[in-house]
Fold this sequence. Notes:
With 410 residues, the protein is α+β, with helices and mostly antiparallel strands. The chain has 16 helices and 14 strands.
Amino acid sequence: MTVDTAIDLNELDLADPDIYTAPDSGLGVLHHLQEHQPMFWNKRSGGPSFWAFTKYADGVAVYLDKTNFTSERGMQVGQTESAARAAAGKMLIVTDGRHSQLRDVMNPALTPRVVRRLESAMRETVGGMLEENAAKDSFDFVDTVAGRLPLSVICELLGVPRADWDLMIQWTRTAFGSATSDDIISDAEKAEANANIFAYYADLLAERRRDLGDDVISVLIRGKIDGTPLTDEEILLNINGLITGGNETTRHASAGAVIALVENPDEWTRLRRDPSLIPTAVEEVLRWTAPSLNVMRTAIRDTKIGDQAIRAGERVSVWHPVVNRDEDAFPDARRFDVGRTPNRHLTFGLGKHLCIGAALARFELRVLLEELTARVSRMELTGPVKRLRSNLMWGVDRVPVHLELDHAGH
């Protein structure tokens, strides 16, 4: 890959969402930093400046340093500090002190047993959508398959009635800026969608308080920290976190998996011929797609990452798409390899903030790859992929595809 040496680092702002709508999805810029300035001080006029780390080892160091950094002042560079402070100590991803206790409350809702219970519904969703759309000359894989799988799973987990599922995906895509790159979503529209989500789940929470079930909301209602039940605010904030992680990230990973397999036909053939590679293929999809664009921490005291001094109050960020492509950590890192092992990507984070939904996301991707390889003989893109305009999520808006079913196998 040729690195663009014309990049003006004095003008560069990695928080600019337009960077990630480029044909290379911003990787040229990120690789340039990795090769020339892997510890980059990103000066901003319209928001707080931050350090951007693009080397794997530095990302690991940030994740594992529980002493010098906090997540309670924001956990991504695209977030506002006021929003982070409002949720700090209450929402899992922006909580440090009570993190383990809050995680213990939520874990029973996401056990392997609970996840396996949803397997038949997952297969029915994926298989049904593949069979229904394969006859079409072209369809959008994002809305039709990649979006439906995680949405159905998270709605099942939260006990959302099926009639409301389409409403949920519409609100979440707007709230997190995941609309098409042609349609820039205003702050007012995002705020309205977030308000709608909170209002909906506040009503659902009130229903569950009157009549408990076995869904995630009921688990959170029953949960206690130091003998004290969670407040409605704490429950609603963590529901919002599950929606983001359970819907948005898996959707982009699923769509990215199809792009990667279409663009690497030898790997697609390899995977179809040897389904035993699916577990390693899932990890490679996660490394390659890295849906959470960046993670941020704030230094609470003067410290260092490698040789770089970090002052108290400064923000540091780790950029997942490029740390997952660091040649020092992943041999032949810019090649998609369904058999890659070991594969210690940072897509789910590391340490105590390891994504609580990691097992669920892996299971969904496994089901997707199993259904694709078993049912589909050929995949092709039928038009340009549209990248997501976001500085939070690294993904795609639209993936037009044509699929041919493997009738011999079914």
